[in-house]
Amino acid sequence: MNRIYLDHAATTPIHPQVKDTMRKVMEESFGNPSSIHHYGRESRKRLDEARVTMAKSINANYESIIFTSGGTEANNLAIFGLAYANRDKGNHIITTQIEHHAVMHPCEQLEQEGFEVTYLPVDENGVVDIMDVKKALRKDTIFATIMFVNNETGMKQPIQMIGNLLRSRDIPFHTDAVQAYGVEEIDVEELKIDLMTASSHKIYGPKGVGFLYKREGFNIAQRVFGGEQERTWRSGTENTLAIEGFKTAVDVLKKQRLSRVKHYEQLSESLISALDYKKVDYQVNGSLDTDARVPNILNLSFPGMDVEIFLTNLDLSGVAVSSGSACTAGSIDPSHVLKAMYGENSPKLRNSIRFSFGMDNTVEEMEQVADRIELIINRLSSNV
Q1: What are phi and psi of 167, to 5 degrees?
Q2: Quick one: signal sequence residues (predicted)?
């Protein structure tokens, strides 16, 4: 059976060049980057070069990159760090109802500690209204955290407008850009982003490493205590092996981003065309407008289907997809993202599938996926 992996928003395979780099690092550079001897200096050099690469990829300064164990830690460092560092200025935080749990849960924890959080609604396309952001601002608002691209629908948020608004009010702006980094061109200066989260394993790098961009001059409270690593923002010996792999993934990305985006567009269009040709009953969650969403994520609702049964049958047919966030895989809880878009009683909460494309997927595979979807729907429908 030809297995087809369409869950790249959950994680990507490691790029061959990344594997080669990591093998070389394991053999040649094992030193602790905090050590002053030759072996330590060799690792420090690699770490510094990686930090420069990350900074240049988003038009930031070298000193603004803080390496973390991934997107979740980076989000936690930004959110708790900003909250605790600014609690003397206020206790109000702005976020949205569609954030990843790595943002949602820290905000909920801060509510238990006495902070007030405004969860902004979204429209039926899953997009925040800039006027709602403006209306939510208060004198005691200490920061806003609003994702760049939604991980379930692929819909982009109006980051440029939000950044301009918050900068004019001198309010720090953090964005979870885990699903945007690698697909969107990101310039933190142009977009007025003050803190930004990115993760390696979404761009064909290794798991367990990411970074938090923090604009110079913004103070955040330290969350991990120990040594002086990462200029004390994040203590602990740096994972130089994973960081070097992350750097290579970014180096490859610089050369391939535009071609990858074009390929993702072709895959998305091919799957939609194939489903239309077969007259499969589906609805798009969000928008097909290429300016409104990233092309590598496509969320579809299949009326009359049950998501758990549908996912199981797709897996048995060799198609790996998801019902939403990878961090809630296996959960029967309805998607909080789709609930925010359509309401808690919408059948879309129980019949929606996320397809997320990768650089190795082919148009032929999209046609095969459509064939298998048609067969599954016909079989399940006949059993009702």
Answers
A1: -65, -35
A2: none
